[in-house]
Amino acid sequence: MAKKRIGFGIFLILFCTIAYIMTYSIPQRVQMEVSAAFFPRVVLIALAVSALLVIIGGLKEYRLEKVQIKKEEKGEFHYKLLVLSLINCLGYGILLKPLGFVFTSSVFLILQMWLMTADITKKIFIRNTILSITVVVALYVLFTTVFYVPLP
Amino acid sequence: MGMFLTGLLAVLNIKTLILMIIGVAVGIIFGSVPGMTATMAVALFIPVTFSMDTIPGMAVMIALYVGGISGGLIPAILLNMPGTPSSIATTFDGYPLTQQGKGGKALGTAVVVSFFGGVISFLILSFASPLLAKIALKFGPFEYFSLMLFALTIIATVTRGSFIMGIVSGLIGMVFTFVGMAPVDGVDRFTFGLYQLKGGFSLLPVLIGLFAVSEIFKAAESGFKEEIQEVPEVSGFGMTFQEIKEQAVNIFRSGVVGTIVGILPGIGGSTASILSYSQAKKASKTPEKFGTGIVDGLIASEAANNGLTGGALVPLLALGIPGDSTTAVLLGALMIQGVQPGPLLFRSNPDVIYGIFGALLIANVIMLLIEFFGIKIFINILKVPKSILLPIVFITCALGAFAVNNTLFDVWVVIIFGILGYVLSKFGIQLAPLIIGFILGPMAEGNLRRALMLSSGSITPMFTKPISLLFVVATVISVGSVIYKSFKNKNKEESNILA
């Protein structure tokens, strides 16, 4: 965790530096006492200082971790499932407009439920498919006919 | 008293009561689905009230409002997903209670204190609204900015573990608010030439992305182990009379905090519940237990957000100024009915005023009964496998976000902030301080800039105006005590490790 914190602190300082430089491109209204860049600058400086403290804290923690013999039990990390879920969510965002709410949402639900069910059987898959389509159609009807929200 | 009884009687007829029961039930459904809010419920039902008389029409609106605010407690407690922005602080202790197998008790407690919060705000509204409205008018930009500064110290209160990581988290939340048009002068900032970014990020998509969608990725990382949660037995209200007695001060304080925050226009329910949570933690003999599943925290949040409902009606009715987004819609509903809220309303339409007061009380009673009998149904949500629940929640979140502005951009905000919430949590960044920074940042900035415009760039009035000075002193004390405690704990920990 200490190494992660140090890395995150460094990233934050870099981010703050770039964002701070970008504040100079914010247009300024002549009649304003305080420009629109003022508050972002204050917050970015505060964030950079805090990030520095995070790095210092991380370095201290790193030393303490060396003194302390820690046995961290790490759970299994399922990269494949995580990446597939990410792709499914991003795909949903990309395809929502061209393919429409009903189709995209149904496919998203079927895929995500399939991904999230550990021991999937044919029966469970069919149940999930029916459930997905029913939920999506019900939501579509509710929003378009009752609430008059035009869905893609 | 006579007018109050007249108002109450105007609501106490079968037709209005049935309409109110439907209103509260619909409000609860809206509040309990992540992505949908009380504002949406009220806005969507305005056309339904067109043909109604003023008092029944407004009673339905109030019922939707009370139900919508209260309904957010259900997913907040059972799923760690705030149904509405007002229930953010409910997740802090509500979900840990569910994890301990006390979901039924948590729901019952939250329902009971929501009712008490609503009643406290009703009493304040009924007896002191014109006076309170006058006090609210004394709040200028300096007072608001000082209040925001004080409210930002909540970040320290809700942070678990590293204090500095809490600060970083809150500041990151503020950074996200810089995207879009600047408050006051509307200058574009960090929009990278994209017109979609001009409006900035709306609170609802950010909130549901961070809290609800990130759960999918957290579940994916652990390999989607299906943890079937035991559904606890639910009996009674979850709170004994003795517990109510013990928590009386907390309930009263939280209800009052919620009402006061509601009275101040533009602050909102999320701030009310977080501020109240912070005050409860400061007043507690066991502050270290907050965030681990302590009913005190749950009570503080829920009594405050329902306390807000009455408070937000004070500036609406007495001044014609909406206290939050939902009351802004209520203002529209009143005007459609031909009622012009403002100081004259108490003289010109006292029947409407006291009818609304009566509706607030009745709506709270209906909310208590519906949620009490509904607990046994709500708790069954724990039986639904996460493999089914989480994807459906994602779809409702996307749908709710889309409905805010009818734009796909908000769906992307949900997805991106879901990923961001997951990534940040990997670096030890807590999401509660982040969302507090996101909510309070723009209010602090807007009021600071307005204040400096009024004082020609001088910060002195912040220390010379009594209300502002009061909040500045409170901020200094709050920050000082947190830093002192943090150093004390850290030194203790380090000496323990090195010993």
UniProtKB/TrEMBL annotation, chain A:
It comes from the Bacteria. InterPro entries: DUF1468. The keyword Cell wall biogenesis/degradation does not apply. Keywords: Membrane, Transmembrane, Transmembrane helix. The chain crosses the membrane at residues 7-26, 38-56, 77-95, 101-118, 130-151. Residues 8-152 form the DUF1468 domain. The keyword Transmembrane applies. This is Tripartite tricarboxylate transporter TctB family protein.
From TrEMBL, chain B:
Pfam families: TctA. Keywords: Membrane, Transmembrane, Transmembrane helix. It comes from the Bacteria. InterPro entries: DUF112_TM. Residues 17-436 form the DUF112 domain. The chain crosses the membrane at residues 20-46, 58-78, 106-128, 149-179, 199-217, 316-340, 352-375, 387-405, 411-441, 462-484. This is Putative tricarboxylic transport membrane protein. It comes from Orenia metallireducens.
